[in-house]
Specification:
This is Response regulator transcription factor. By secondary structure, the chain is an alpha/beta fold. The protein contains ten helices and eight strands. The strands form two sheets. Strands 2-1-3-6-7-8 form a six-stranded parallel sheet, sandwiched between helices. A two-stranded antiparallel sheet has the order 4-5. Helix 5 links the parallel strand 7 and strand 8. Helix 7 crosses helix 10 and helix 8 crosses helix 9.
Length: about 210
């Protein structure tokens, strides 16, 4: 039986250590690397490869969605499972749209990550039990948190709320800066906003981001 090679990407060593112990209980599974930052991940990927990469979206030196796109542009067959504290529908949609094959929240039971890795290792897609309702409710057809906005505008809204510049929003979503600015203008108009500060306040009020 061939070994399933796994890489854990999270900036908390205790989190990586705990999941490593769990995953290596599975026959034929090996965690071949633990990575704590986007910079470390980029350096590791230059000379190494794996079968499944478990990726935290919130690294101190890089945006998880940008990393997803860059990694898959270089290695389209790489199976990536997102492991994150965020459980909103917009986060799930953005991750899957960026190319993740699995999405598990850190509030899930530990066995959920095992199930996710097993599924993506077979070439399937896996959503954790606490976020599956988003897909069942038609995640691609609209967002209950932002009913005023289109699907793309809702994506842009969330990225702006997380503190991204318009240029970074464009790179993350895969659109040009002019289009990103147009989306921001439409968001401001529809939601009667005048600044990104007001946008972040609204995002907090609707439970899309945590309070600082």
């Amino acid at each position: 039986m061939s070994t399933l090679r796994i890489v854990l990407v999270d900036d908390h060593p205790i989190v990586r250590s705990g999941f490593r112990q769990l995953l290596e209980l599975e026959p034929g599974w090996e965690v071949i690397a633990e990575v704590g930052s986007a910079q470390e991940l980029a350096a590791w990927m230059l000379h190494s490869t794996c079968d499944v990469l478990v990726l935290d979206l919130s690294l101190p030196d890089g945006d998880g969605l940008v990393m997803l796109r860059h990694l898959l542009a270089q290695r389209p067959d790489l199976a990536i499972v997102v492991l994150t504290m965020h459980d909103g529908a917009l986060y799930v949609q953005d991750a899957i749209a960026a190319g993740a094959r699995g999405f598990v929240t850190k509030s899930s039971a530990p066995d959920e990550l095992v199930d996710a890795i097993r599924a993506v290792g077979r070439g399937e897609t896996y959503l954790g039990t606490d976020v599956r309702d988003f897909e069942a409710d038609g995640m691609q057809e609209g967002h209950s948190e932002l009913p005023e906005l289109t699907e793309r505008e809702a994506q842009v809204f969330l990225l702006l709320a997380r503190g991204h510049s318009v240029a970074r929003v464009a790179a993350t979503v895969g659109i040009n800066a002019k289009t990103a600015y147009a989306h921001r203008t439409n968001i401001y108009t529809k939601l009667r906003l005048t600044s990104d500060y007001e946008l972040r306040l609204l995002a907090m009020k609707r439970g899309l981001i945590g309070r600082a």
